[in-house]
Amino acid sequence: MNSKAQLFLFCGKMGAGKSTYSQVIAKQRQAVLLSEDAWLAAHYPHQITKFNDYIHYSNLIKPFVKQHVQQLLSLGLSVVMDFPANTVKQRAWLVSLANEIQCEHTLFYLQVSDEVCLSRIAKRRLAQPKRAHFDTPEVFHQVTQYFEPPKASEQLAVEDVAESSTAI
Fold this sequence. Notes:
Elements: E1 6-11, H1 18-29, E2 32-35, H2 36-43, H3 51-74, E3 79-84, H4 88-99, E4 104-110, H5 114-127, H6 137-144, E5 158-161
């Protein structure tokens, strides 16, 4: 395992700026950027219309994602995962990708207020009409009920990101 490779992960509520910030980190760190939204859209176009659809299809791609990410890391390439690390279970799976091959990870925790998240979601709905059915206040509140901030007991390498740093 090339010790220079690192896995970068993102935790933050819907609309916090995870995708935008992941692009910044990928550029800064010269890392491969993998987007869950892109993988899901490519493999299951027009099949995700509800939150439960997202959960189902997200779980289906995990074996392929795991193999791909671990191959990249093993080659010494850092990887930015634009996949939500918003629950203990999600973080455990993402961190296992690095831990199984003795690779370091960093979790960026984007702490953004609900008001700012909702404002960004409204703007995104206008800018990306294809997402309008999913980017709603109702979906935000549904998804947010599952959000779990990272805990010390998870033993993660966490870097806190201020709300001003996530401006879109």
